[in-house]
Amino acid sequence: MTDTNMIRWEQDTDGVVLLTIDNPEGPVNLLSPLFERSLAATVDRLEAERDDITGVVITSAKKSFFAGADLTFLGQTAPERAGEFAAGADRSKALLRRLETLGRPVVAAINGSAIGGGLEIALACHHRIALDVGHSRIGLPEVTLGLLPGAGGLTRTVRMLGLHKALTEVLLTGRLFTPAKALAKGLVDELADSHEQLPALARRWIAEHPDAAQPWDTKGYRIPGGHSASQSTNAFQSSVVMPIAATLRKQGRGTPMIAPHRLVAAAVEGTQVDIDTALKIETRYLAELACGQISSNMIKAFHFDTQYIAKGGSRPDGFPRHQAKKAVVLGAGMMGAGIAHVCATAGIEVVLKDVSVEAAERGKAYSDKILTKAVAAGKCTEAERERVLARIVTTDRAEDAAGADLVIEAVFENTELKKKVFAEIEPHLAPGAVLGSNTSTLPITGLAEGVQRQEDFIGLHFFSPVDKMALLEIIVGERTSDETLAKAFDIAQQIGKTPIVVGDSRGFFTSRVIGTFLTEAIEMLTEGAHPASIEQAGLQAGYPTAPLALNDELNLKLAQKVRGETKAAWIAEGRPLVHMAAFDAVDRMVDEFGRPGRLEGAGFYEYADGRRGGLWPGLKEAFHTTDADIPFADMVERMLFIEAIESVKCLDENVLRSVPDANVGSVIGIGFPAWTGGVLQYINQYEGGPAGFVARARRLAERYGDRFTPPASLVALAESGETYR
After folding, report:
1. DSSP 660
2. pLDDT tens per residue, range 107-118
């Protein structure tokens, strides 16, 4: 193999050619110009020497089979290059088409993960054998990046599985499957138990299928389940297309997230034509998405920014990797129970402490419930369930914390209570133990005054439900050491969380920024905006939950409490107070109407048996809502802009330490719309870039208040022509 060909050719005396893909430019195989040149040379040779070939096996020299497309290239693709991009995609697909019509059996020996373009290469083979190892993942996740599988994966999956199954179980979900699940879905045909077994199984299949061809190249082939060319148009539309389209419309709610819609269009249109035409249709839709802004945003957030975090971009250098062995969780309520569960699942011994053993046992029961469901769903075994539960020891005694190297406090948001539980537990811990507080708003520097070793104290802000939410916000106090931060970062990854690192301030980054979103929605209510319009604006912006509904979920009493503490702190610091009409609205909802939120069964919405119903009819009279003269576009952008502007302030104040932390934290932590790529990427991608954002922010400030005035640092960025990186 030379640097001009990343596919190694080996041929045995039986005529079977083993093609081993080995990218010399990195640790994984990627779809790239080098791969395209290598594949072209290889296919040319296969065709030229076809008479001497009995079959072909494609495998990889890397730990994974193939990682997909080179996202560095995709993230830089601009609309004016759509034609060039489409031509390149068609060239690559033509090579795979020549491979599957070679006239010889071609087998993919998938020795590790085959993701995106990697699986698409395997789909162009006649048979797929996957090595059954736990770390391997197989799937087509393109839709999660604002794209669609465009190397033939969409077209071939539909022809293999049928339109409905391909869309609903594979393409629209973007899920990655274990090899066993991929076999059950029909994405692979066979499993191998070992690396040694892979080539043997491939050779056996080749020997048994000397005339192998793809089903769609066989006379009389029909797409499973029928397709629009084999049914009446009305029957096909009503039975397959319309239900999927209706679901997408409901999920999308008018957001700019167009990839799922284009994916469905390409799939449906492709069923009405031959495969070669279908592949061209696929290319047309891919080029539109790949050369659009939304995919660039999502690639930045979900690949590059996430990769920056995963590789330790926010972790201090010079400290060895750390693993926690024994953790003490203080407080067995909903948060504490969830934290205990994720720690125990990661193999950490957990002491779950509360004021009584009974209370601690109720917290442990949370893990029992989750694990019992997992066993019933086949996601874990009974033995695994027992092992995890055995790691959680319940207690009301501080002495049981003896030797623990990690504490995570998860009691009520009360400074004195938090200091009390730390003072009780600290004498029993191992030297250098990480002292973590799960506070969501209280400054870490102040809480650290309650412990002896303030350099070991750090904020570990989890998100509810802990077992499902991926983010962990790590907050560094004034006296927190770099060693403690490094340990906390490693612990976050040990328990499967995505860590972002922020500086200390009331509300930190996530709580502070989401608070502006929640308040802005209520502010619009006080201006006379119809509550249904406010909710629709939030959903069409792309937020996963409408803002008034989210206010109910988080509880207005809590909002009152946090505001009161913030006000007291600001007065003590001599900082100016800014009053908003939304604050009075919250007070009226709680004190006058007795409607603090879902927990009490009454808030901005009506509730029955804990389930949300319609908006409270009394809102119109209480806040004199008419359809105020607020353009709908303004309502949408007020929510997005207020969070983005507050994030810039966090960056200015060193609360935020990096742009990736801001983008990833905002999307996976507080529900900032995924299509934007995150709070700071939203500014970058706004029409006209930061300069366009600044101009729009000034117009919003003129109409709705000084809170929309762009910070000086943002204005300077816009004037320089730079973006947030």
Report:
1. H
2. 999 999 999 999
Cross-strand pairs, 20 = 8, 59
Residue 391 structure tokens: 């790691």
Are 535 and 623 members of one domain?
yes
Do 677 and 700 belong together in one domain?
A: yes
Q: Which residue shows structure tokens 């409607």?
A: 595
Number of domains in the chain: 3
Residue written as tokens 């996430």? 306
Q: Which residues pair with 500 in a beta bridge?
A: 473
3-class SS of residue 499: strand
pTM of the full predicted structure?
Answer: 0.92
Residue 452: half-sphere exposure toward Cβ, Cα within 13 Å: 10
Q: Give the rounded distance of the alpha carbon of 569 from its chain centre.
A: 35
pLDDT tens profile 75-124: 667 788 899 999 999 999 999 999 999 999 999 999 999 999 999 999 99
Which residues pair with residue 435 across a beta bridge?
407, 457
State how far the Cα of 107 lies from the Cα of 129, in Å rounded to an integer. 7
Question: Looking at 291, 314, 334, which one is the last position of a domain?
Answer: 291
Do 395 and 253 reside in the same domain of the chain?
no
Picking from 458, 485, 505, the residue at the C-terminal end of a domain is 505
Domain with 422 in it: what CATH number?
A: 3.40.50.720
CB 554 within 8 A of CB 597: yes
Contact 451/426 with Cβ under 8 angstroms?
A: yes
d(CA 445, CA 297): 35
CA geometry: angle at 517 spanning 611 and 467, to 5°?
A: 55
Shared domain check, 477 and 541? no
